[in-house]
Amino acid sequence: MLIRMLDFVIVGASFLLRWVVSLGPYSGKNTSPLFGDYEAQRHWMELTLHQPLSKWYFFDLEYWGLDYPPLTAYHMLLCGKIAHYLNPSWVADGSSRGFESFDHQVFMRLTVLAGDLLLLVPAALLLKKKIGKLAYLGLLFNPCLILVDHGHFQYNSISLSLAIIAACLVTEANLSKRLLGAIIFTTSLFYKQMQLYHALPFFFILLGQASKQKTLLGKLTEVGLYGTSVIVTSSVILSPFILFTNDPAAQLGQIAHRLFPFARGLFEDKVANVWCLLHTLFKVKNTIPAEAQLELAALLTLICATLPCLRLLWDQSAKAMANAMTGSALAFFLLSFQVHEKQCLLFVLPALLLADTNLNFVIILTHTAFFSLLPLSVKDSNIGYYAALRLMSYGVIVLLRTEMKRDFTRINKVIPGMLDGRNGGFAPIFGAYFILQEIMLYVTHTAKPPTKYPDMWQVIISSFCCGVFVILYLIQLIFSLKTEKVQRIDLMTEKVLAIRRKNKNLKKTE
């Protein structure tokens, strides 16, 4: 009973934090004519409410045309119906574009909180049971997710929570749970197409699970069951466009075209990925033909995203799955096309599953991702909330100093000298990395960039974060390749943690 009450307090505190951030500015506030992501989501509510299904993916593509999968569209329709019931002017056909009011902001923010309540909280509680308390707390209080969904304004927690729940299920020994995991991951993919970042880990772990069957028929049967579950789920989600439109082929083709706009090219904004960094140094955008850019990006992404997943063929543990999801998504972020800074959530949240055993890696990855969101916060006029969340993250580091020290010992056992080698190994570099971030936060907030280079602060931040992400990807890959040694040390760590939990329980009982 006491534990349940504590969960209520923790979840309540995390929602209070979300609500405080949600009272601030949002993407595109008072910036006509297109406004921002806030208006995009509002417009989709209006669009799905007033336009027939056959026009959803064709309607007025120049003004926030629908470019997310059908589950997002269905969600927007539900929100649109509720908005119309509460105040028709919020989603009035045509005349509501750019609508802004305090009441409407409260409604829009509550729709995001509702998604967190329905999916993020169950995902966090599942992590607590299956992984540990640090993963549970990390998901509830993750500053990146709070800033993007409740500050900038999006619904990332829905697809990400579904993916995390699915990841926990596909590591289970029970086949029915693994099938359910495949179904839930498919729904996450049909909510946001960027869940493709996690498709490779799910493919490899389900293939690895099937390979455990003793006979060839058993292996093929299990693979067939996974494939059938994905196909049936996809068919159900797409069925309205197939059954209730005059030209289903055209509908499905347009949906695919809207979800994957290859024609936009490799670059869209200055973010912390390899291509933006290379363009800053060598003007890649101007020297390599656009078609060759996409081909090169696709090849490198496929190779680098597959490498962290290979371990899943023989190790289907929750930690191996978390490693693969983190490494694969990080590779996609660094090397694929059309990357947005908000997509850092796709490797930050799976990394939380490693928090109880790889704490320092998770802290540095999350901290760097949060730093990469600084330009977005400046753009949204959310710098005050960003600074407050950053201060909170430092408080978390202070509270976890004992666990961090324990994890440093583990790292040195896996790779001797990495942190305490000549000149301190990487430790001084990581110290300098924190200091540089605070300097850039101060400079961004107080000084204007040179007129000749208006994007200078953003370029410096994205280039710095890209360099750190590359190092972290390589570290994660090295650890995944040192399979036997890592597994032995992880097993020892888990035994020690189990003994400590047992001792704590005994003390409580006494």
TrEMBL record:
<dbReference type="GO" id="GO:0005789">
    <property type="term" value="C:endoplasmic reticulum membrane"/>
</dbReference>
<dbReference type="InterPro" id="IPR004856">
    <property type="entry name" value="Glyco_trans_ALG6/ALG8"/>
</dbReference>
<keyword id="KW-0812">Transmembrane</keyword>
<feature type="transmembrane region" description="Helical">
    <location>
        <begin position="344"/>
        <end position="371"/>
    </location>
</feature>
<dbReference type="GO" id="GO:0042281">
    <property type="term" value="F:dolichyl pyrophosphate Man9GlcNAc2 alpha-1,3-glucosyltransferase activity"/>
</dbReference>
<comment type="function">
    <text>Dolichyl pyrophosphate Man9GlcNAc2 alpha-1,3-glucosyltransferase that operates in the biosynthetic pathway of dolichol-linked oligosaccharides, the glycan precursors employed in protein asparagine (N)-glycosylation. The assembly of dolichol-linked oligosaccharides begins on the cytosolic side of the endoplasmic reticulum membrane and finishes in its lumen. The sequential addition of sugars to dolichol pyrophosphate produces dolichol-linked oligosaccharides containing fourteen sugars, including two GlcNAcs, nine mannoses and three glucoses.</text>
</comment>
<feature type="transmembrane region" description="Helical">
    <location>
        <begin position="196"/>
        <end position="211"/>
    </location>
</feature>
<keyword id="KW-0472">Membrane</keyword>
<feature type="transmembrane region" description="Helical">
    <location>
        <begin position="383"/>
        <end position="402"/>
    </location>
</feature>
<feature type="transmembrane region" description="Helical">
    <location>
        <begin position="423"/>
        <end position="444"/>
    </location>
</feature>
<keyword id="KW-0328">Glycosyltransferase</keyword>
<feature type="transmembrane region" description="Helical">
    <location>
        <begin position="223"/>
        <end position="244"/>
    </location>
</feature>
<keyword id="KW-0256">Endoplasmic reticulum</keyword>
<keyword id="KW-1133">Transmembrane helix</keyword>
<feature type="transmembrane region" description="Helical">
    <location>
        <begin position="134"/>
        <end position="152"/>
    </location>
</feature>
<feature type="transmembrane region" description="Helical">
    <location>
        <begin position="456"/>
        <end position="479"/>
    </location>
</feature>
<comment type="similarity">
    <text>Belongs to the ALG6/ALG8 glucosyltransferase family.</text>
</comment>
<protein>
    <recommendedName>
        <fullName>Alpha-1,3-glucosyltransferase</fullName>
        <ecNumber>2.4.1.-</ecNumber>
    </recommendedName>
</protein>
<feature type="transmembrane region" description="Helical">
    <location>
        <begin position="106"/>
        <end position="127"/>
    </location>
</feature>
<feature type="transmembrane region" description="Helical">
    <location>
        <begin position="320"/>
        <end position="337"/>
    </location>
</feature>
<keyword id="KW-0808">Transferase</keyword>
<dbReference type="Pfam" id="PF03155">
    <property type="entry name" value="Alg6_Alg8"/>
</dbReference>
<comment type="pathway">
    <text>Protein modification; protein glycosylation.</text>
</comment>
